[in-house]
Amino acid sequence: MTSNRIVIISQDCLNIVNDNHIQNELLEYLSKILNIIENGLKNGDYIQLELHINPILKRKSVLTFPNLKENINWKFTVYLRLLKFIHTQIIKGEIISKRQLYYADVKLFKKQTIVDECLDNIALSFNLSIEKLNIIASQKGLIYGELSIDNYKISKSIGSTLIPVINLSSSLSDSKIIFNNNENSSPDSIIILEKDAILSGLINIEKSNKHLTQKFNNSILITARGYPDRLTKHFINILTIKFNKCKIYGYFDSDVYGFMIALEYSSKPMNNNTSLPCVSNMIIKGAKLFDNNVKYSDLIPLNDKDISTSMSLLNRLKTYDDTTLDSLNSSIKNLQRSLYFGFKRELKIVDIN
């Protein structure tokens, strides 16, 4: 005789004391519900999957399997497959991107958007970020240089490449990192760029005239393409620990948003489990509002949002400690000039020095 088995995906199902216990609780609960589902399938029972996507608004999605509607059966199978993937990734202690998940079973998932939607629903139901499920949205950051991380090779010959997927809880001791095919070699500097357009420009210049970028021949260039994601920050942090004697430079737009991106690297905690920033010793350089090379046509008038965001940031900076403020002194003055004169300026190749 068949029976109904109810499987609930909700934050109320997890007894999370603190962040350090999240994955243990999640692993235990996933093991439990997957066991319920698998036993139910063997017994021919009806299985009701409830996703409490928004407990405050009491919004939930309910899928009953088996169902007369083929689309419901397919959607249930998609969720089951994803729950198994999450369970496996947590056991292995490895992370995987949404894109990699999609390609793991293209026939079932059909479209990337299906994977994105279902993963987001699972994360929302547990009230966790997808990164807590050992999943990242995608590999966002780009790197250019001669580097190998374990068996992953990064070479200038192929241009910029995506930053490799590494475990967000890993440390330097978990990976073997070699620069320029020499275990004893170290880069002269690590260059962090706000935009990929600048990285592409530098690469093109190097290929056409190596003398112009000779100073970067022995450097590693990285961009997160805007605000850095956790993977890019974690990767940079591991590099700076490995090559702890090389200089770290950051190049950003001369506006409040460029400054905020710089702070993501130099001052903001890398994640919820640490108060340490990605790279506290980064030297912030980049576009200057007024310079010998700056033309009036390079200046962009501030809008109301730029002004209010700048004022808000300057107020927040008052809470920073004196040591941090001293290191940010040049950037703060540049932002104050921007407000005073009512202009901002984007980073250009000529600013990279």
TrEMBL record:
<dbReference type="InterPro" id="IPR002815">
    <property type="entry name" value="Spo11/TopoVI_A"/>
</dbReference>
<dbReference type="GO" id="GO:0000706">
    <property type="term" value="P:meiotic DNA double-strand break processing"/>
</dbReference>
<dbReference type="Pfam" id="PF21180">
    <property type="entry name" value="TOP6A-Spo11_Toprim"/>
</dbReference>
<comment type="similarity">
    <text>Belongs to the TOP6A family.</text>
</comment>
<keyword id="KW-0413">Isomerase</keyword>
<keyword id="KW-0238">DNA-binding</keyword>
<dbReference type="GO" id="GO:0042138">
    <property type="term" value="P:meiotic DNA double-strand break formation"/>
</dbReference>
<dbReference type="GO" id="GO:0003677">
    <property type="term" value="F:DNA binding"/>
</dbReference>
<feature type="domain" description="Spo11/DNA topoisomerase VI subunit A N-terminal">
    <location>
        <begin position="74"/>
        <end position="135"/>
    </location>
</feature>
<keyword id="KW-0479">Metal-binding</keyword>
<dbReference type="InterPro" id="IPR036388">
    <property type="entry name" value="WH-like_DNA-bd_sf"/>
</dbReference>
<dbReference type="InterPro" id="IPR036078">
    <property type="entry name" value="Spo11/TopoVI_A_sf"/>
</dbReference>
<dbReference type="InterPro" id="IPR034136">
    <property type="entry name" value="TOPRIM_Topo6A/Spo11"/>
</dbReference>
<feature type="domain" description="Topoisomerase 6 subunit A/Spo11 TOPRIM">
    <location>
        <begin position="190"/>
        <end position="321"/>
    </location>
</feature>
<keyword id="KW-0460">Magnesium</keyword>
<dbReference type="GO" id="GO:0000228">
    <property type="term" value="C:nuclear chromosome"/>
</dbReference>
<dbReference type="GO" id="GO:0005524">
    <property type="term" value="F:ATP binding"/>
</dbReference>
<protein>
    <recommendedName>
        <fullName>DNA topoisomerase (ATP-hydrolyzing)</fullName>
        <ecNumber>5.6.2.2</ecNumber>
    </recommendedName>
</protein>
<feature type="active site" description="O-(5'-phospho-DNA)-tyrosine intermediate">
    <location>
        <position position="103"/>
    </location>
</feature>
<dbReference type="GO" id="GO:0046872">
    <property type="term" value="F:metal ion binding"/>
</dbReference>
<dbReference type="InterPro" id="IPR013049">
    <property type="entry name" value="Spo11/TopoVI_A_N"/>
</dbReference>
<keyword id="KW-0799">Topoisomerase</keyword>
<dbReference type="GO" id="GO:0003918">
    <property type="term" value="F:DNA topoisomerase type II (double strand cut, ATP-hydrolyzing) activity"/>
</dbReference>
<dbReference type="GO" id="GO:0007131">
    <property type="term" value="P:reciprocal meiotic recombination"/>
</dbReference>
<dbReference type="Pfam" id="PF04406">
    <property type="entry name" value="TP6A_N"/>
</dbReference>
